[in-house]
Amino acid sequence: MQKLLIVGCGDVARRTLPRLLGHYRVFALLRDPTQFAFWRSRGARPLLADLDRAASLRRIGGLADIVLHFAPPPERGAVDTRTRRLLAALTRGKSLPQRLVYISTSGVYGDCAGAYIDETRPLRPTSARATRRVDAERQLRRFGLRNGVCVSILRAPGIYAAERLPIERLQKGASALNVEDDVFTNHIHADDLAMLTCAALRFGRANRCYNASDDSVLKMGDYFDLVAERFGLPRAPRISRSEAQQKMSPLQLSFMSESRRLDNRRIKKELRAKLRYPLVADGVNAAWQERKL
């Protein structure tokens, strides 16, 4: 049975784990020992290590046949030092992984003025977060080409689930942009992203990127309205972009400064993906049903 290492053990990793058990011997890289019991009880073998401390990563060299890299970059700088340390540790082993799947972000494309875009779109990140993701992608692709490792990259947009809806924001009176100022936004349910991770594990091509997005075509305000209507909340008041610049934090504004529509045909053709929640409305309705139960 092949050994698989999960790096970055957050929500999507937890949703992916049940799909892996029985097919792989799963190791989970954790920097918090209090999480050991959770992962061990669910069938994974915990490893204590921290991507911010190179010395702690010595044990993972040569350990895994497959790596699922879910870890985010650090919060500052233009370089993803965590990915750099991970790859350095992997190359120190007697053997390299055969395959690596990385979850990146669709933010690497930057603002596309609402255009439909596929994976051939040039990368023009406009935020520091996305710049670090571009650096991670480039590191991983070079690593794959240099060492013959099959690296597949999933570019995920806004990840949502029942626990990840903007309900609290709406309750606190969050605003949305006027229709003429609003931006197109893209989404993927966390369960579908877990499914796509496993699909990339099986069918992903070497040095290949995939838009891991659903079929929805929504502007951000319409997304807020959809959630508000389904959960019986007041709609977000619409404001102009100039008003938003005065009221919103730089982080909130950054999400309202990029507009694009992702072409997801590649995940359907190459990864053979069948989304459980092809539209955001499907996922929001499912979350409402869960709440009723």
Automatic annotation (TrEMBL):
Pfam families: Epimerase
Residue stretches making up the NAD-dependent epimerase/dehydratase domain: 8-211
Single GO MF annotation: aldehyde dehydrogenase (NAD+) activity
GO CC, one annotated term: cytoplasm
Alphabetized CDD domains for the sequence: SDR_a4
InterPro entries (alphabetical): Epimerase_deHydtase (IPR001509), NAD(P)-bd_dom_sf (IPR036291), NAD(P)-dependent_oxidoreduct (IPR051783)
Matching PANTHER family: NAD(P)-BINDING DOMAIN-CONTAINING PROTEIN-RELATED, PROTEIN YEEZ
Name recorded for this polypeptide: SDR family oxidoreductase
Protein source organism: Candidatus Propionivibrio dominans
Taxon lineage: Bacteria, Pseudomonadati, Pseudomonadota, Betaproteobacteria, Rhodocyclales
